[in-house]
Amino acid sequence: MGSKIKQEIFDLYDDYAHNRLERRQFLDQLAMYAVGGLTLPMLLREIMPDYQQKIQIQPDDPRLNCIYVDYESPKGGGTIKGSICMPIDIEDQLPGIVVVHENRGLNPHIEDVARRAALAGFVALAPDALSPLGGYPGNDDDGRTMQRERDRDEMLEDFIAAFHHLKNHERCTGKVGVVGFCFGGWISNMMAVQVDDLAAAVPFYGGQPPLELVPQINAPLLLHFGELDKRVNAGWPAYEEALKAHDKAFQAFIYQGANHGFHNDTTARYDKEDAELAWERTIAFFRQHLEA
Q1: Which of 79, 115, 249, 282 is deepest in the core (most CB within 10 A)?
Q2: Is 124 in contact with 97 (CB distance < 8 Å)?
Q3: Is residue 268 a part of any domain in this protein?
Q4: Which pTM does this prediction carry?
Q5: Containing domain of residue 39, as a range?
Q6: Same domain, 136 and 178
């Protein structure tokens, strides 16, 4: 049904997923599209995440060693829990990637993305910024509510601390990049500003840093945007101009016909062709900048 869903429904879900609509408002407005044989439960099944059937790399994949670790974030939330994954047959050291979740904590999809990064030949650390509140609660609705209780800048410090934890990990070469999605895209942009020795940053449809901070960016950037993501894209022209004005190394791709969240294969916003291309570009980018 995904290709038949009206763009207005995707936009409605985006408002809900980014806390501009309460759940009751979302359901009431979504019900207006339950016509022509479509029911509200059918629409919900299509657009809400499906974490049971859509996982690409299972947690017990025999090719990987994945464990949960705790690390300290003294400027952020204190003790932070994260999932760290690496190939099972690692003989020496590998570059590292911090994988940053969306605005709902470390859900099964982001853990899956970290496993994909590990299978590509990296040590991947996916922190849970909800750790100080007990961790991802098992569903995105409560996860979003919990994440709103935390200070955004303190969460940024949690991911900066993750960078340093990974950089000093015995299995890591010390070359570390970051990839993040939505909220995690903003984190990736901000880490490029604040972490001097960050080796590469890949924001997926992430908010931009304050333009006056662009001169502080040292890391090369690879930025992914969905053409239909008007909310995030509104800030891109000024960001692009500032990056060019300060001679920063960056590549940006706008995927035609793609929505915000197009890389997330657990919802109907997923665009398989664009998501696979963006991920291929991401891994190639990391190999270029982390393996050199």
Answers
A1: 115
A2: yes
A3: yes
A4: 0.94
A5: 2-47
A6: yes
